Amino acid sequence: MATHHLTNGSNALWETLMGEHILPGFAPSYELCKLLYTDHPLGAKIARLPIDMAMSEPRHVRIENAPDDEAAHEFTKHWNDLGCDQIIQQVASWARVYGMAVLGFGATNPKTGAIIPSDAPIDAQAIPDLDLYFNVWDPLNTAGSLVLNQDPNQPNYLKTPSSVTINGQSYRQGRFVVLMNEDPVYLDYESSAYGYSGRSCFKRCIYPLRSYMQGQVANSLVAQKAGLVVAKVQQPGSVASRAMKIFTEDKADMLRLSQNGEVLTIGQNDTIESLNLLNVDKSLHSSRQNIIEDIAAAAGMPSQLLNSQTLAQGFGEGTEDAKMIAQYIRGRRQWMAPVYQFCDQIVMRRAWNSGFISAMRDKHPNSYGSLSDEAIFRDWKNSFSAHWPAEEAENNTFDLTAKRFSLILDTIRTTAPLLDDNPDGKAALLTMLEQSINSSSGVFDGDVDFGKQDSKNTKNL
Q1: pLDDT for res 140
Q2: Is residue 171 part of a domain?
Q3: Do 195 and 344 belong together in one domain?
Q4: Do 332 and 409 reside in the same domain of the chain?
Q5: What global pTM score does this model have?
Q6: Using alpha carbons only, what angle is made at residue 263 by residues 257 and 269, rounded to the nearest 5 degrees?
């Protein structure tokens, strides 16, 4: 039997994935992880889509002890100026691709242009006056410095070291943060991360990713044959004249050139039909679906994200799918929390500088007139909070709020007539209504204040 090769030429990704050594359980190298991310049709989607979805909406920043929203607005302004969202997106993507990534920051003196040494501390008070920069390093940049201690009796067992070396240059603690995809396992060396660290999101799905590439070749072959026309033409006898041969060839050319709106005449015993690929199409669709589900299961992500399909319909299945995706995205946000905290500390110092604090002190002398800059900064920092938008759909949240307020109003309508001779009881009832409204964030732009609840305010209730 003759063997025909269906592909011509080659590239690095094809040569590596189609090698005979690729079997289920194959551990990818640093080079293969990079090729999958840059060249594979699903590589970037597996690595970046969860990060993009988790960061699709900005956090809601709030400083509880600040008298107004100016401190939060100033923080958000400097956060955007430094491009922190793009930086976090990059370090999280590299961590998923290779199993580990490092975010470091440095500073230069704008007056002299000198770079502050990476092994020296940066004065927090001087951050507003320095030119800051952020670098994201992958395992090849940090090779040898993040192997992690394998001695189970040591305090730093499987923990991030206090310093990291980048091309021979050491960075001290506080100047960098390490993000790993999954926790390190004892004596489990990851060649993609050059150490006993986290694992690449591609590690468990190398073989189905190879199958997906083979499916792409099959799709291409079907596409090439989809427009093929099969003409069953009565063949001339054993002794055919030259004219008959030319006539048969002309009929084939006319069939090939015919278009919509034209009429083609064929013989009584001739038949023209397209190539039947119905069974092939069903097989390809089923195979592709199974491969994508295998990839999603191996990568630990919902298959709907890779399929790019709408959620299931009927009997609440779509709601359950949405909840599962929301839980997955919530987990990705929690995973990125250390990087956010690292950037938060820097942006706080950058935003709440002495000039801004002085302006706030002049604006609110009663609150800050007797406090130092550092005391005000600490007060804001300790009351800082950043929350992601609610994962629930907006209409579901509105329905829950409407039901809650309906229950409160029914309670007041039923209880108020019973308190006609009890002004203090009516005042307490009005206070409950006020607190219930104000505790429901997003219902009104500001807080509801009915004033002092006494008998004068409640006599007509």
Answers
A1: 93
A2: yes
A3: yes
A4: no
A5: 0.74
A6: 90
